[in-house]
Amino acid sequence: MHTPYHGQNTVDEVIEHIPEAGHVLRAYDVGAATSHNLRLDQAAQAVTVSTDEMLAVMEYRARRAAQQVNKK
């Protein structure tokens, strides 16, 4: 799930590699349609949130989603 630093990846790349990323980006009002060519760190800066915080929420959501799948 991790690359050395997701913040350097584009929004599209992050959405492709982290299943819950789209939900998190929407929660932070980052529109994938308008930000897809931005690096994640640029998109985070545009909505005044740290890249680390955004990635932490994505990782948390991904883990929760995996736990739900494992419970089934």
* Global morphology: elongated
Spans of at least 5 consecutive residues with low confidence: none
The total count of helices amounts to 5
Mean pLDDT: 83
Topology as a string of helices (H) and strands (E): HHHHH
What is the terminal separation in angstroms? 22 Å
User: How large is the share of residues in beta strands?
Assistant: under 5%
**How would you characterize the largest beta sheet?**
none
Helix content, binned percent: 55-70%
Task: Tell me how many strands there are.
Answer: 0
Structural class: mainly alpha
| Rg, Cα atoms, Å | 12 Å
Key words describing this protein structure:
mainly alpha, 0% strand, 72 residues, 5 helices
Write up this protein:
The protein is elongated. The chain has five helices and no strands. The protein has helices at residues 11-17, 21-27, 32-35, 40-46, 51-71. Helix 2 packs across helix 5 (51-71). The chain is 64% helix and 0% strand.
